[in-house]
Design goal:
Largest sheet: 7 strands, mixed
Strand content: 25-35%
Number of strands: 9
Order of helices and strands: EHEEHEHEHEEHEE
Number of domains: 2
Shape: globular
Number of helices: 5
Helix content: 25-40%
Radius of gyration: 19 Å
CATH topology of the largest domain: VC0802-like
Distance between the termini: 28 Å
Oligomer: single chain
């Protein structure tokens, strides 16, 4: 199974706690920075980490990194990333958030605009089209600038609005099951088992 560099953003001050949570799940941490922890994992790791990490915002897949001190370097660096390997021709993509710390480029709106244009130009050349319907799955892009080092990451949006971890004693399962069925009737969704496969137990 393909392995990725995964980025877990968190609130400042929680990096050490998040690192311990990731290690407890059995994954190798490769870097700890202000507001995020990077670790190695496969597609299953993305699912497990999204569910079980309590201090992470969400799990992002690293797309690429490069150095940029000017907007031209930002454009060329972004264009150099193989976005087509991650985003299909009908994918909806945009830079949802840009964070800059101790970098020459610091305007979030300008960073977002330049990167979006660069992604479009790259996709035009690869998919041989001048227009993208963006009617398929969503791929929100996050970008971090730390001392002029740019890191771009994305998360595929499968329409999941929220993930909750529910814990109860085994002897309360029948009562909990009745409550869970009521929740599903009102809101929809899936309840999964707390095991390696995370198979749905109620739909």
């Amino acid at each position: 199974m393909k392995r990725y560099e995964l980025i877990a953003p968190c609130h400042f001050g929680l990096e050490s706690v998040l690192k311990r949570e990731i290690t407890d799940l059995g994954y190798d941490v490769v870097k700890v920075e202000d507001g995020r922890v990077t670790f190695i994992g496969d597609a299953e790791a993305v699912c497990r980490a999204n569910i079980f990490l309590r201090t992470a915002e969400r799990i992002l897949i690293k797309a690429g990194s490069f150095r940029a001190e000017t907007y031209e370097e930002l454009f060329q660096g972004t264009k150099g990333i193989a976005w087509e390997e991650m985003i299909p021709s009908d994918g909806k993509f945009w830079v949802t958030k840009a964070a800059s710390i101790k970098s020459k480029l610091f305007s979030p709106s300008d960073i977002q605009s330049v990167m979006k244009k660069a992604m479009v130009e790259r996709m035009k050349e690869v998919y041989h089209t001048q227009w993208f319907p963006e009617s398929g799955a969503s791929f929100p892009i996050r970008v971090f600038l730390m001392k002029d080092e740019v890191t771009a990451a994305f998360a595929r949006d499968n329409g999941c609005e929220a993930v909750f971890l529910v814990t109860f004693p085994p002897e309360h399962y029948e009562r909990a099951q009745r409550v869970m069925k009521k929740i599903l009737e009102k809101s929809g969704g899936v309840f999964c088992a707390d095991n390696e496969s995370m198979e749905p137990v109620l739909r």
